[in-house]
């Protein structure tokens, strides 16, 4: 398959993404299969697509400096793909220009060629000019979100957060304690230990035998806080209410030594097969699954049934924008209000399912106070018999891994 198909696939993926409702990761899979891309070409497609989405505003600013006048949407996407290769990915000039021009429609190939060659000539000027841009434009984040973070964290930490979000996310894995055989994590040259016990950084592609055998699970250390606060015990009956794709559920089951009952629910029935497959691969034998939307009242048979509940609720994802690169462009200021309402409804419907003295952990992958500390404050005010035992907040610019929040509540006896 000629290499130029990678650029064509990248442009087609960007056009599909711009129409909404398709996430970047799914587009890489779809267009890799559609174009029968090799492993190397799939990796190149992934690099180009994610780099364009991470730097969309900056690329458009550069395009505006290099070519005055209006551009149709597809031509702009071709230029984004080309300039991204030249200025951000370090792909050799001849390959970036020739293959990008070749993937464009015939009528605009001359324009594409001229603009890309102009970018090569102006490379130093463009890099120098970038230093004068606002952080929102230089790091391609919505202006409203940058202003919000600056108010909350200060200018220095916000700049560090923006820079963090624009770096490619490493592949982090954790050893699976429920696997019947263990991978020699310390002795594997492709794995390097990080500052969190049981978690490792993987260099290169993830071997399918590791995941198919349930030896490792791809997971950021930030996810462990909620399960550690929950402190699952063997023999307990526990609910993971928003369980798909199953990373936290497998941690819960491992802490229970695969003994007890673990009910995993999710509002989307289509996510259950993947959840079931992930738990099966992780050698989890105590989990049952059900489709349920916790914005509704729980069935009577679940009332006062659970010793502990994990609510990993839908959220703004502002703590994981490094990994979910297109989420920054989907989020709107008004979304926070609706998310807070949904989260509170989920909490209120889950609370009656706790046993007396039971534990509930509320968690998000958000950095926003409304979804975290202020949400818990409102719940405690509405339920004076609830007690806040502990909470954890990770922030990328401070802790060096994904942002997440978790709070442990205990019901009155």
Structural summary, described in words:
This protein is of the alpha/beta class. It folds into four domains: 4-132, NusB-like (N-utilizing Substance Protein B Homolog, Chain A, Orthogonal Bundle), CATH 1.10.940.10; 134-167, no CATH class; 171-217; 223-410, Vaccinia Virus protein VP39 (Rossmann fold, 3-Layer(aba) Sandwich). It has helices at 4-18, 24-34, 39-54, 56-66, 73-89, 93-103, 109-121, 123-130, 135-138, 143-153, 155-165, 208-212, 224-230, 247-255, 272-281, 327-330, 333-350, 373-382, 396-399; strands at residues 171-175, 191-193, 199-202, 216-218, 237-240, 261-266, 287-291, 306-312, 354-364, 387-394, 404-410. Strands 7-6-5-8-9-11-10 form a seven-stranded mixed sheet, sandwiched between helices. It has a four-stranded antiparallel sheet with strand order 2-3-1-4, with no helix packed on it. Helix 1 (4-18) packs across helix 6 and helix 3 crosses helix 5. The model has no long low-confidence stretch (mean pLDDT 95).
Number of helices: 19
- Report mean pLDDT, rounded to a whole number: 95
N-to-C order of helices and strands? HHHHHHHHHHHEEEHEHEHEHEEHHEHEHE
Please write the CATH class name of the largest domain.
Alpha Beta
| Major sheet | 7 strands, mixed
Termini separation: 66 Å
- Give the domain tally: 4
CATH topology of the largest domain: Rossmann fold
Q: Low-confidence parts, pLDDT < 50 over ≥5 residues? A: none
Whole-angstrom Rg: 23 Å
Name the strands of the widest sheet in spatial order.
7-6-5-8-9-11-10
The CATH homologous superfamily name of the largest domain equals Vaccinia Virus protein VP39
User: What's the count of strands?
Assistant: 11
By CATH, the architecture of the largest domain is named 3-Layer(aba) Sandwich
- 3D shape: globular
Category by helix and strand content: alpha/beta
């Amino acid at each position: 398959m000629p290499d130029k198909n990678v650029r064509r696939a990248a442009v087609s993926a960007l056009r599909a993404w711009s129409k909404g409702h398709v996430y970047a990761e799914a587009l890489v899979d779809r267009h890799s299969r559609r174009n029968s891309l090799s492993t190397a070409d799939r990796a190149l497609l992934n690099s180009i697509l994610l780099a364009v989405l991470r730097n969309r505003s900056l690329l458009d600013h550069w395009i505006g400096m290099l070519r005055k006048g209006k551009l149709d949407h597809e031509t702009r996407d071709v230029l984004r793909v080309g300039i991204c290769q030249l200025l951000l990915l370090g792909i050799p000039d001849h390959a970036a220009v020739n293959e990008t021009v070749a993937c464009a429609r015939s009528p605009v190939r001359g324009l594409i060629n001229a603009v890309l060659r102009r970018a090569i000539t102006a490379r130093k000027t463009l890099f120098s000019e970038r230093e004068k841009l606002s952080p929102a434009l230089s790091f391609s984040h919505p202006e409203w979100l940058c202003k919000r973070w600056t108010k909350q964290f200060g200018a220095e930490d916000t700049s560090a957060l923006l820079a963090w979000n624009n770096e490619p996310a490493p592949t982090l894995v954790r050893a699976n304690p429920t696997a019947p055989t263990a991978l020699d994590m310390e002795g594997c040259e492709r794995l390097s230990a990080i500052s969190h016990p049981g978690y490792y950084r993987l260099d290169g592609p993830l071997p399918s035998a590791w995941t198919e055998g349930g030896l490792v699970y791809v997971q950021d250390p930030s996810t462990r806080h909620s399960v550690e606060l929950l402190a699952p015990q063997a023999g307990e009956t526990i609910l993971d209410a928003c369980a798909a794709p199953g990373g936290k559920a497998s941690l819960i089951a491992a802490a229970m030594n695969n003994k007890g009952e673990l009910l995993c629910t999710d509002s989307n029935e289509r996510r259950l097969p993947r959840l079931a497959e992930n738990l099966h691969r992780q050698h989890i034998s105590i989990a049952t699954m059900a489709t349920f939307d916790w914005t509704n009242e729980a069935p009577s048979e679940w009332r006062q049934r659970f010793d502990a509940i994990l609510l990993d609720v839908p959220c703004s994802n502002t703590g994981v924008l490094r990994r979910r690169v297109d989420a920054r462009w989907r989020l709107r200021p008004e979304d926070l209000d609706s998310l807070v309402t949904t989260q509170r409804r989920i909490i209120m419907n889950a609370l009656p399912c706790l046993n007396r003295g039971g534990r509930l952990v509320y968690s998000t992958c958000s950095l926003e106070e409304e979804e975290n500390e202020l949400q818990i404050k409102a719940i405690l005010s509405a339920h004076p018999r609830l007690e806040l035992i502990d909470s954890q907040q990770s922030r990328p610019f401070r802790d060096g891994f994904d942002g997440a929040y978790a709070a442990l509540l205990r019901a009155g006896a």
